[in-house]
Write a structure and sequence with these properties.
mainly beta
């Protein structure tokens, strides 16, 4: 995933469905979440706690579904990301949705934009990777759903999934 040529490989996501109360689309369309009710393949960008921008990919057959992009492994434009974030440690540049958006300069301006058009660029992953499911982070409702997915063993995720985590499908 790249924004104006800066970015990397997605290593952590969380899924949200309009049927569960942790989703921004749960209560129906609002001015804030309108992009979630548009066509799939668009960005839904919102402010978290009035501080950080968060990027979601609108997707799925059910209107109001989205996937929060929680972390990427930086691959291109690392110097640009370091300048934007004001730090050197490559592992921390995009480990978390707020950090990721700051490193990629994603703001509300990107909300509703098509993910297959500039400034966005998506590339296929290539070789398959092991994916580990776990519980989502930073929510208080629907906390038992194992809809967080990380690339197993990646040092670029925001938090590892505990080995003793109990999840259900």
């Amino acid at each position: 995933m790249f924004v104006d040529g800066v970015g990397g490989r997605i290593v952590e996501t969380e899924a949200y469905d309009p049927s569960e109360p942790a989703s921004h689309s749960f209560g129906g369309p609002t001015e804030r979440n309108a992009s979630m009710f548009g066509p799939p393949g668009r960005a839904y960008v919102y402010r978290s706690y009035g501080i950080h921008w968060c990027l979601n990919f609108v997707c799925g057959k059910t209107i109001g579904s989205a996937v929060l992009i929680r972390a990427i492994e930086p691959r291109r434009g690392i110097d640009v990301m370091r300048k934007r974030r004001g730090l050197e440690d490559v592992r921390l540049l995009c480990a978390g949705p707020g950090r990721l958006c700051q490193a990629l300069a994603i703001t509300r301006e990107h909300d509703g934009r098509a993910l297959d058009e500039p400034p966005f660029a998506l590339e296929p992953r290539g070789a398959p990777v092991d994916i580990a499911p776990g519980l989502r982070i930073g929510i208080t409702r629907a906390v038992d759903l194992p809809w967080r997915f990380i690339e197993a063993g990646s040092p670029f995720v925001s938090r590892k999934i505990p080995k003793d985590a109990k999840t259900r499908y």
